[in-house]
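MODEL INPUT / OUTPUT PAIR
PAIR INDEX: 1
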Amino acid sequence: MIKNRALQAFAITILGFLTLAAGDGAASAFTVTPVRVFLGQSTSSALLAVRNDSTETIRFQISLQAWNQAPNGEMQLSDTHDLVFFPAMMELKPAEQKNVRVGSTFKAPVTTERSYRIFFEELPPPNVALTATDAKAAAEVRVLTKMGVPIFIQPMSPVVKGEIVNAAVNASRVEFDIRNIGNSFFSVSGVTLTGIAKSGTTTFEKKQDGWYILAGGSRHYQFDIPADQCRGTDHLRVEIASTLADDKGNPISLQQQIPLSAAACGAASPSH
């Protein structure tokens, strides 16, 4: 089951930081569990536990949006009425924990997984009269965190499947897409490009990080081939480390060999 997939360190995403004044950093600390929420026909609602691990009272504004992805992995967020949650505001004293309930409004099962993110945005403390100690603390940078937790509405029959497509080499650059051809997400933990000489020896190796590949989505990757190694490379090997597995839970490796001709070795254009 998808619920049993190994949780990756990137499941909770820090989206941004807001600083209120110049000086040394001082950040509030809080945790949200679980790091992913799965809903469906058998589980229409869930609780998220929010805990204040700092020594200060923290206030939150809570929001929820539908989540999609651009080919470069950038999050695309939009308003939605597919889910409901409560409360929308929260205050936690030091070491205090409270729950947020989230529920699905779907009356029928979905055929393709739907993805959302619920956000916990830390708010500035209320304006109050400051003691001398408080005034000194206020001169420091106050870091406010916005944390997003993924929520998935799962189909009745999840299919997790991916492929490498659209591979092309031009001007010392290789590009390809990792495409989700199933109806449920999978996660990519790393992408490795290896140059192989005719003798079978490795000419170079490059790596990039991965993230979610949502149902029906794809992620575009590109690598510059080292100019001093390009003409000595016979072909390229793309390897994808991911959460893809067969029916028995055995990892599935995505790999593809890409021929490299001498004509494809040229000056690489600047990366963007």
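PAIR INDEX: 2
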Amino acid sequence: MLLWRLLRKNIVAGQLIGYMAATLLGLTIVLLSLQFYHDIQPVFSAKEGVFARDFLVLSKKVSFLKTFGMGSSEFSPDELNEIKSQPFVKRLAGFTASNFKVYASTNISGKTANFSSLLFFEAVPDKFLDIDSTEWKWNPGSKFIPIVIPRTYLALYNFGFAPSQNLPQLSEKTIGLMNINIEVTGANKDAVFQSRIVGFTDRINSILVPQKFIDWANTEFGTGKEQPSRIIVEPHNLTDPAIGKYFSTHHYEIANDKAAAGEASAFLRTLIIIVMGIGIIITMLALGLMLLSINLLIQKNHDKIENLSLLGFPSHIIARPYQWLVIILNVGILGIAIGVVTYFRGYYADSLSVGMGMTDNSFAWTYILWGVYIIAALSIINVAWIYLKVKEIRK
């Protein structure tokens, strides 16, 4: 205590305040970046939230030459194997398209509406579908074909076609009750089936029927087996930036541009790293300011330190008041930084919970340890610097 009273007179409060402000700013930026990364980790991992278990529908770009029949829009076996071998691909399957003619008709009682149209069918393995219907099945000999359509088709009818033709709007339940007559023709044969819409998909933009039916009908009425012109891919992580890069390089198109999620996540990660780097730079500059202030302080107390040395005080005893001052300042800075991060986190936590699927509302105490590590490192450097400077004067 006597040493502290003797050595504190030349301490400049402005220098300490400057060190605290700079260190607090840098440490807060670093910890807030780490906390934010922890909070959006479910989005990056794609195990929950807005990118959970999503799929990509892939096709080749239609070029000018393909318009005139030059070039193929189908995926060859080699291309499929190459895509399947990519590290970001968990599994994939090709769309099986109907290569026979499909004619559909139905009516709505009470209205002058008699729908009839040529259609096309496609099929993908059931494991890639996002429907849950007990009617989604077909076996040879069955005269009923279940159909799944995109929800966007129903929206186009309700808000586009129906109003323009003075037709009633239909709910999903209502349209599921309508019977549809399906006539299949090809290879000089024809067959009539009954059908209904048994489900809606948000994943695939196509009119889907069971895989068993499309395989059977292509054999009975089709013109032969063809390679798929579209494939559906389940990635390990939809936000992997390698997805968009690979498909863009090979001139493949992704429905709904879902690969943009990978680009967005890569940008966000880069931004977090840049912000964190700025925080570290500010912290290092604050450390330099503190070391300079310590050096000036010890030089001002040069005579006092020499006299204390002559009285037999060892270097570590003389340095201890300054060392404890630095440690107390650093611990205070860490406490304030954690409080500031907690305060700012409250502003974005609710938005992430609703908009991006953040389900873990716990504070990232694991990452707060990095704050402890940073403060501990700063304290060790400062303590060692003070001891060395005092020791130099004692020599």
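PAIR 2 NOTE: The longest strand covers residues 189-201.
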